[in-house]
UniProtKB/TrEMBL annotation:
Membrane as UniProt keyword: yes
Pfam family, one: DUF5326
UniProt entry keywords in alphabetical sequence: Membrane, Transmembrane, Transmembrane helix
Membrane-spanning intervals of the chain: 12-33, 39-60
UniProt organism field: Kitasatospora aureofaciens (Streptomyces aureofaciens)
Protein name in UniProt: DUF5326 family protein
Alphabetical list of InterPro entries matching this protein: Uncharacterised_SCO3924 (IPR020246)
Length: 66
């Protein structure tokens, strides 16, 4: 591996490789934030549905008493 690294031109080692690493890191970070955002979105939607269902149950029980 060291021989391969040393065989690369200096402009590849100093410019191309760091840019590729930054792009890859950016994509990994964007993926992680996307997954976390999607999970949070699902949790919020589930909480809204559960809240609406609880309100409907409470209203139906109150309507049944009267």
């Amino acid at each position: 591996m060291a021989e391969l690294w040393k065989s690369l031109p200096s402009w590849v080692r100093n410019i191309v490789i760091p840019v590729l690493v930054l792009v890859l890191a950016w994509n990994v970070i964007a993926f992680v934030f996307g997954v976390v955002g999607a999970l949070l979105s699902i949790v919020i939607k589930l909480l809204v549905v559960v809240g609406i269902a609880a309100a409907v149950v409470i209203l139906v029980k109150k309507a049944a008493k009267s």
